[in-house]
Amino acid sequence: MSSQPIRVGLIGLNKSDCWAVNAHLPYLKDTSRYRIVALLNSSEDAARAAISSHGLSSDTRAYGSPEKFAEDNDIELVVCSVRVDRHYPILKPILEKTTAKAVHCEWPLGKNLAEAEELTKLAKSKGMKTILGLQGRKAPTGILVKELIQQGKIGKPLSITITAIGYNFGAADFEALSYLSDISIGGNMVTIHFSHILDTVTQAVGELSSYSVVLDTMRDKTMLRNKPFTYVQKSESDEPVKIVGEVPRTSHDQIAIQGHLENGAVFSFHMRGGHPYPNTAGLDWRVYGETGEIRVTAPSANLHFGGPGHSVQVHNHETNSVEEVNIPQDSWDEKKLPFTARAPARVYEAFADGKEHEYATWDDAVQRHRLVEELYDRSKNGSTEKKAEYTSRL
Amino acid sequence: MSSQPIRVGLIGLNKSDCWAVNAHLPYLKDTSRYRIVALLNSSEDAARAAISSHGLSSDTRAYGSPEKFAEDNDIELVVCSVRVDRHYPILKPILEKTTAKAVHCEWPLGKNLAEAEELTKLAKSKGMKTILGLQGRKAPTGILVKELIQQGKIGKPLSITITAIGYNFGAADFEALSYLSDISIGGNMVTIHFSHILDTVTQAVGELSSYSVVLDTMRDKTMLRNKPFTYVQKSESDEPVKIVGEVPRTSHDQIAIQGHLENGAVFSFHMRGGHPYPNTAGLDWRVYGETGEIRVTAPSANLHFGGPGHSVQVHNHETNSVEEVNIPQDSWDEKKLPFTARAPARVYEAFADGKEHEYATWDDAVQRHRLVEELYDRSKNGSTEKKAEYTSRL
């Protein structure tokens, strides 16, 4: 690889809190392998405010329109971190014009399969490399589970059991995330929370070969609160959390999927919206094998982040002992990058190293969107779930 | 009711350890409402040995043949507690001849639906009352969950999540229970462990209205050990546990079922054979509701026993507090009957009190056998589980 930093045009860096700030910026500001040369925001002013707020180089170009951004021939890598329904309208004009050699977009890529397919086709027609923000591929927890299985620590896997909570999708959500409840936006518990977990899990245990699925919306509306769940009232002068509205929920807050993996293991996964039961793991993932069992726990659905609070244990059936396995640390842990930025940092490193098989691409986005469509279809037509007859025949 | 004790003819009381000894005898010996007047064992000698071993009245009649037992016109209640595949050949000749007014049999009644239907029809044709040993109907844990829901403690139930282990059906089983691995016997993880849990759970939350199911045998053989899992080597002179053989396993060691209840709640239940992960509940049953969540934990699949080690908690979403709810005690707890005998004691009491809706009958046995057949059918023909196509289309 060139010793020159890869020149990044970053889309969606707010001046304050957002995913680009939490997941992309910490690494990009820290590394000599990449350099942010341009920002695209909702307006040039917003882009300039972000450049100033984050102390980016004063020669960073500020754009307010995708067309102008696309004409910047100095950009080598386009990075898109905006709300999912804006991927397509922003990326399409950029991909049509840009001379950049690569494009990196968060998962879900576009709000549905059609958008993902069109964007992927467009990027391929331009010969661009693609990166997808399914960061779980580079999250140490899933990689460790894969290695433990390959090392024969539990023998042949016989069954997978996962229970998880969404944190969002309960009785109330943060108003800035109210769009999660609108299924037409494309960002929701199925596409984001469930898909990230499934992608992280399946890289370790193998893909689904057959399944049936239940998707349901048990709360058809959600209240909106004016503060995120992380908000803690520090003093009496702090304004307490208020309910500031209510929106209908058309996206799903219940997902149950069961079936088999390609290796034959039984697979069972139930995820519900809402907060975890106190003092229990928000995510509990078991791999029960012939000679032992792996148990992964995490405080929430964020298995693809790599932490904090992840635990990986192995129960050895013969000795009946439980071993806590250390999750490997790397320089991004040592540098104490925010957890949300560590797996993305590893993705950036893998791309810079040309290790294409270590990160997800837009082909994977198309595959994951196909699963999402399959889940929607199967849960709607009910062909996989028959009426129970045993209760009415007496 | 008559103040005279109900005269019981008990089938299957060994001189030492067995289900009749553990679940039926402690109550029957303790109560003034029933009196054991006759035993039917594999031989008259075996029946006499049991009478002597358990200190039953010396005028207790001993029988070695169902036909002779059936001619005992003093028996009012026939109680059958033998291995499931012996229910039909023993009960059929008895039901044809007996003058008893009632019959009590353990679940599963007979080894399949056909046997249960025939026995039920026969009992009805004789005008006999029937009792079924689905003791979970009188186990305090399930009853308490039902009451908590009815009291509105968690609002409308939105989803049910159950994970459970079978204890049996792992890599090795106790040799005396090797028949559990042979599906043709009719006693296995689906008919016994799963069905008892499901019956106990559904009385609290409502019946399934639709579902898909995965049944699998992931270990196609099991080793046999010469001691039960409860055996603990007390001194070096004790013989340690030995593997004394191996049998094929044709019954299932994996059950995954998901769907909806009649009240609309999502239902997800995964049960695997083998021992629990150390320091976790062998059974974890959640009822997630609009305003709170009930969590029931038990050390094993024996939810229908009522203990020991059961815990029922309620998480209140608004206060974020968890309340441990005391499981109501009654005289059978106070008398410290073995746990296995307390729910059966309550069934006997309900029958003596004429409270027909408080215990399961053979109609329920037919219904549960229909479910078991439905599970077998659905899991075999695969109509409820479609091949995943998303992995092969790139």
TrEMBL record, chains A, B:
This is Related to dehydrogenases and related proteins. Residues 143-297 form the Gal80p-like C-terminal domain. GO terms for molecular function: nucleotide binding. It comes from Ramularia collo-cygni. Pfam families: Gal80p_C-like, GFO_IDH_MocA. InterPro entries: Gal80p-like_C, Gfo/Idh/MocA-like_OxRdtase_N, Gfo/Idh/MocA_oxidoreduct, NAD(P)-bd_dom_sf. Residues 6-130 form the Gfo/Idh/MocA-like oxidoreductase N-terminal domain.
